[in-house]
Amino acid sequence: MRRGNKVLKVKEVSELIGISVRTLHHYDEIGLLSPEKMSGSGYRLYTDTDLEMLQQILFFKELGFPLKRIKDIINQPSFNRKEALETQRKMLLEKKKRLNQMLTLIDKTLKHEKGELELSNKERFEGFDFSKNPYEEEARERWGNEAVDKSKKKVSSMSTSEQKEMEGKMNAIYRRLAELRDSSPTSEESQEAIKEWYDFLNSNFGHQYSYEAFKGLGQMYVADERFTKNIDQFGEGLAKFMSEAMTAFADKNK
């Protein structure tokens, strides 16, 4: 791709894109987008590469990804911009399809309210789709299809009694961690308990989590309220404690 040589100051980027200077400064402060080039007077200078990354960030943001997660994704050594664009395109097309379905349903409902159209109870909910598992989607986005497919295959191959036994072990680990949540996540006892969680995941789901993936999973526990709510059923603040303990464990061992 042919690139221009011009670099832009933060105000020029703001005016070009329509994004506030404050937002760009925030991206810089949290390490999401920090241009390396500096002017003689100390101003950040945005290159074409920086603008490409900013576009990528805004695509992720449009799709509802939190900034913390966007940062994790684009900072991965394996991150590929072209592949990300292709995935984002598919996701946006799916979003467009869902929105069109919802708009059609709203139009039909409005006509029904005006007495212009009969709408059955079944037709009233045709635009809604609850068939997708949000946890599975989240995992697929974070680690790819292979890890999730292996996990599903391993669990589905278990008998009902084996699944219940595994669930019991998992809940026991959660309860042990919940008892420790007011202590330091880096303490010896906390690290022993979180290692038990790491070993449990690697032994029961048909996928070997790297330390980095384990750390990323912990970050998701606090970045995504669905995970937080689920985990905190065992004790308020457990998700945050586990996230910090998992980060410490991964950083120590990798």
From TrEMBL:
Q: Where is the composition biased (Basic and acidic residues)?
A: 141-150
Q: What domain of life is recorded for the organism?
A: Bacteria
SMART domains linked: HTH_MERR
Note down the stretches annotated as region Disordered: 141-166
The reply on keyword Mitochondrion is: no
For this UniProt record, give its keywords in alphabetical order, as a comma-separated list.
Activator, DNA-binding, Transcription, Transcription regulation
Instruction: State the protein's name.
Output: MerR family transcriptional regulator
Natural source organism: Evansella alkalicola
